[in-house]
Design a protein that fits this description.
Largest interface: A-B, 23 and 25 residues
Largest sheet of chain A: none
Helix content of chain B: 25-40%
Order of helices and strands of chain A: HHH
Helix content of chain A: 55-70%
Shape of chain A: elongated
Radius of gyration of chain A: 15 Å
Number of helices of chain A: 3
Strand content of chain A: under 5%
Structural class of chain A: mainly alpha
Number of domains of chain A: 1
Radius of gyration of chain B: 20 Å
Number of strands of chain B: 11
Strand order of the largest sheet of chain B: 1-3-2-4-6-5-10-11-9-7-8
Number of helices of chain B: 15
Oligomer: heterodimer
Distance between the termini of chain B: 24 Å
Structural class of chain B: alpha/beta
Number of strands of chain A: 0
Shape of chain B: globular
Chain lengths: ~55, ~450
């Protein structure tokens, strides 16, 4: 998963490309994407009482 | 009343309380003396948003009349209150211009409880805007070119500078412990839910804690005794459950050294924690390495996703009304947070429950975990309010945590160790911290502020 790319696409749609490219937004985006990626990739095995695998 | 021998501005809350009870110190003289000190040093520090001299003196006069009342363990103790916490009649500015002229109608629950215990509010201390990381103009009393930390910035500086013995702070990531460490004072955040948050402007509901900046562990215990208890205005607050007895305060503690926390710390911080561990071990403590704790990086990521999503909701309407009143980092953080997908928050909460169980297991057999409070000493002011990575995990898990100030480091900035206790065993943690405090070097006073 490319968290940065997905989040940036959402941001550009919401704020427009100019605001999304401003340094403080870009910095916040990079940090949030790194956290998001870590959360997305962390293991949730064993499942909580059910098998949620696709 | 005779004057006490120690400098009034260096007394702990416990010492103030004892001197007042013994009629060796007048609460009015104390407040007058501290107000004079604030007046002399505040221009260089900017620790206060509002000083409420008139009502502080009125409170001190009332305290003088009730000296010896058994229900007033903090009688006459001057208190600073972080400017995200309501004090009746004073604005709760939150570092946000549209709030600057909006006085609170009533005291926050925690302020009301501390007043009932006899404390006198001296005023409101500075905060970063909405307790986020855009720095206020407050200066670090140890070195003015370095950050005083945040977000309970003014509270930490006011205690370090001798303005008040006790000040309230709040912590969502690391906002009590980190400024405590950077300013050479003691910072304590109780177990989540132990101190109610009615009247405290939220940052993130499931992470926000009210804590205290103080000059001793004993003062943290006094704060907890006065402040704790369920508050109907805060559904997350509750009475502590019955737990197995904690460590015996008289016995050397069993400490778990969280080695993973040393990996990302500066050489100086690592050396200081290991030096403290050796010294405590020499005094009889059992210090064992904890290798099986959950990942600090994952805990920080889960904490950040949780906080960012919750903060977006807190500010949803306010941001629409006053978009330009937000500081740059907070504004960008909220804009990005608004685009985080819902599954990320859900997944973060599922991970959070697992991390809490893993951390409980890591604490098994230890009275407290030992680790650095921060990865480094106070950074240059331009670099922001510091790194929350070693405090945020314990805000996420709601565990009680305390920062104990240590000797100044090579750059004349205070170092600190962090102790983390078992859930609800706040008293056990405070007993361990008091044992350590007695045996470790203290930072002394900031230069020029003895």
């Amino acid at each position: 998963m490319d968290a940065y790319r997905e989040l940036r696409e959402r941001l550009v749609r919401a704020l427009g490309p100019e605001r999304a490219a401003e340094p403080e937004v870009e910095a916040a985006l990079r940090t949030a994407a790194a956290h998001l990626e870590r959360v997305a990739e962390a293991s949730l095995e064993p499942a909580e009482g059910f098998d949620a695998r696709p | 009343m005779p004057a006490p021998s120690a400098a009034l501005h260096r007394l702990t809350a416990a010492e103030v309380s004892a001197l007042i009870a013994a009629r060796a110190l007048s609460p009015v003289e104390l407040v007058r003396s501290l107000l004079a000190r604030v007046e002399a040093t505040e221009p260089g520090l900017r620790a206060w948003e509002t000083i409420d001299a008139e009502r502080a003196l009125a409170g001190a006069r009332a305290a003088e009349r009730t000296v010896g009342a058994p229900s007033a363990p903090l009688a006459g103790v001057p208190l600073g209150v972080k400017d995200v916490i309501d004090v009746a009649g004073l604005p709760t500015g939150c570092g946000f211009e549209p709030f600057r002229a909006r006085p609170a109608a009533t005291d926050a629950g925690v302020v009301a409880r501390l007043r009932r215990a006899g404390a006198t509010v001296l005023g409101k201390t500075t905060t970063t805007q909405f307790a986020f990381r855009d720095p206020p103009s407050t200066r670090n009393p140890w070195r003015e070119d370095c950050s005083p930390g945040g977000s309970s910035t003014g509270s930490a500086v006011a205690v370090a500078a001798g303005h008040v013995p006790l000040a309230l702070g709040t912590q969502t990531s690391g906002s009590v412990l980190r400024p405590a460490a950077f300013n050479g004072v003691t910072g304590f955040k109780p177990t989540f839910g132990r101190v109610g948050r009615r009247g405290v402007f939220p940052s993130a509901w499931s992470l926000d804690h009210v804590g205290v900046l103080a000059r001793s562990v004993e003062d943290c215990r006094l704060f907890l005794a006065a402040a704790e208890g369920p508050d109907p205005g805060d559904p997350a607050s509750t009475a502590p459950p019955t737990i197995p007895p904690g460590p015996d305060a008289a016995l050397p503690p069993r400490l778990g050294l969280l080695v993973a926390a040393l990996d990302g710390a500066s050489a100086e911080v690592r050396e200081h924690v290991l030096e403290a561990a050796r010294r405590l071990e020499a005094e009889g403590a059992r210090v064992e390495e904890v290798g099986s704790a959950p990942s600090l990086e994952l805990m920080q990521a889960v904490q950040q996703v949780t906080m960012q999503c919750e903060m977006v909701d807190v500010h949803r309407r306010l941001r629409a009304l006053h978009p330009d009143a937000y500081r740059p980092a907070l504004r960008a953080y909220l804009e990005v947070g608004a685009e985080l997908p819902g599954w990320a928050y859900v997944r973060a909460q599922r991970l959070r429950r697992r991390l809490a169980l893993e951390m409980d297991r890591a604490l098994d057999g230890h009275d407290a975990l030992l680790l650095p409070t921060c990865v480094g000493v106070a950074p240059p002011s331009a670099a922001g309010t510091g790194d929350p990575s070693l405090q945020a995990p314990f805000s996420l898990l709601g565990l009680p945590a305390l920062s104990l100030p240590g000797r100044p480091g090579r750059e004349r900035l205070p170092l600190a160790i962090q102790l983390v206790g078992r859930r609800w065993d706040d008293l056990g943690l405070l007993a361990v911290a008091a044992w350590c405090e007695e045996r470790l070097p203290r930072p002394g006073s900031p230069p020029g502020l003895d």
